Amino acid sequence: MSQSQPIISFKDFSFKYKTQQEATLKHLDLDLFPGEKVLILGPSGSGKTTLVKCINGLIPNQDKGMISGKCVINGKEINHTSIFQRGNDVGTVLQDSDAQFVGLSVGEDIAFYLENKNVPLHDMQAKVTKAAEVVGLDSFLSSLPFDLSGGQKQRTSIAGILHGNAPILLFDEPLAALNPSMSESIVDLIDRLNHQEHKTVVIVEHRFEEVLHKEIDKIVLLNEGQIVKIGKPDDFLKDDILEKYGIRNPLYLDALRKVSGNLKQDHDLWNVDLINPSDYQSDFQKFLNNRSSQPDKLTQKDAKGIIDVADLRYSYDGQHQVINMVHLHIKRGEKISIIGKNGSGKSTFAKLLTGILRPTTGDILELGKSIKHQTIQQIGQQMAYIMQDPNKMIVKDTVEDEVGLALQLRGISGRELGDRVAEALNVTDLYAMRHWPVNALSYGQKKRLTVASLLVLNPACLIMDEPTAGQDFEHYQRMMAFVDHVIQQKQMTLIVITHDMQLALEHTNRAIVIDQGAVIADDDPFKVLNDKWIVRQAGLRQTSIYRLAERIGVNGENLARASINV
């Protein structure tokens, strides 16, 4: 790795959007060198997205504002480089994959770069097939991009930048919509591009521990538009600096600290397999001996049923069954996680529950009534659905108006409306932005906005599709704490569709695992993740606490349960 000349360089760099009063980036000094793999960390609103836009050319070419200092990308100052020129230097995978599609099919979208380079058709087809195989989409080349799951969309975007010779690859939250096993494969892919193709890789991601599946050369921590710290992973992991800025430490390190009081090594902390198990064995045995490992009750026996699924089948094309569920019973007050690999049918099932889609055969009873003859509005009175993509839900121009819209449509006004809107904005940390235009929000902030806009309704069942995608740890904790409070207070049912296994463990007491549209497991989440066959079949990944338990020689299910209940 050459350290002679940086490929990305910020010198006393500041940027203020034209529509903002204060600078978003402030006096940055940062050098990234050819061949480095760099992770940009920071809480929501810290300036990560703006930094990405400076690197890929959206600033100053599309997003106008005031620049001071200097930013040089591959030898060119950003003030004197067009979007087209920047594309030769930087390949970008956006956080919002929908915004990156240009083709009418997956194959056409992957081919877009090659088409613009006038690559002969025969060569183009071979290159597209190869790129699709790399990301696991070779059987989806004729599919419409907008019929794909969130993870499949992300892989399409990654495939689309593999053809170019750009020396810098920029990934803006590449794991946000991916199931655990797929996120691991994407991290492997990014690592191969870094080492085998000699690409300089910049990753912006909240899922810190999953990025550490492969070693990172450098971490840059941002907060309030300024660089807090630059260093190697161990420089951040040996103390509590990440937690201080709303970034979750790897779960196994939290467990080590909880059980032993402190870490007994200050190097090779980034990988659980590099931890010396003998240093901790006696502490962990004592810890588990002093704690109960009994699972929580799934629900009260006398709780009323809220959802009953009977011989439910659904097909998009009339031939391939996407959902095939014989029976499923959900009670009021349950907290359920729906988990499984990308494309397994999780989001389709949620759309069936909310009336967006209608069963091909079979039926769904909600609060004892069939949904067959109910309108979407009638179903929506009881089943509130928060989509994975916030851009598909937002209709108003300002933050405050968006949160209050559903209440206004239900005839609520005056002080009650103001109080409920203010509470939702406060717990989702959006109150200070209540007068902002929606298009000024980051993707993560939009996510919190959609959550706030439906939590105010107090429905019978709240269905959340990937609520933690794009969220930093602090906002994730605050949001889920609020959701837990509402669920308990109102005896609502919570259904969370998630790839975040720790969320399933911490905030739900029943896990329903879907594979190819069918339920293959329905049990306590800790038990589900302890079953290696289910984990492998459903594209899941045990949290690192299970791996730590295996290395230390204790029961993984018991350790995971006890460490959460500390």
From TrEMBL:
Record-linked Pfam families: ABC_tran (PF00005), DUF3744 (PF12558)
Keyword Transport: yes
CDD domains noted in UniProt: ABC_cobalt_CbiO_domain1
An example Gene Ontology molecular-function term: ATP hydrolysis activity
Listed InterPro entries: AAA+_ATPase (IPR003593), ABC_Co_transporter (IPR022216), ABC_transporter-like_ATP-bd (IPR003439), ABC_transporter-like_CS (IPR017871), ABC_transpr_CbiO/EcfA_su (IPR015856), ECF_ABC_transporter_ATP-bd (IPR050095), P-loop_NTPase (IPR027417)
Alphabetical list of PROSITE patterns matching this protein: ABC_TRANSPORTER_1 (PS00211), ABC_TRANSPORTER_2 (PS50893)
The keyword ATP-binding is assigned to this record: yes
Localization terms from the record: Cell membrane
Keywords: ATP-binding, Cell membrane, Membrane, Nucleotide-binding, Repeat, Translocase, Transport
GO CC, alphabetical: ATP-binding cassette (ABC) transporter complex
Domain (ABC transporter) ranges: 8-249, 307-541
Membrane topology label: Peripheral membrane protein
Function: Probably part of an ABC transporter complex. Responsible for energy coupling to the transport system.
Family in the record: Belongs to the ABC transporter superfamily.
The protein, known as: ABC transporter ATP-binding protein
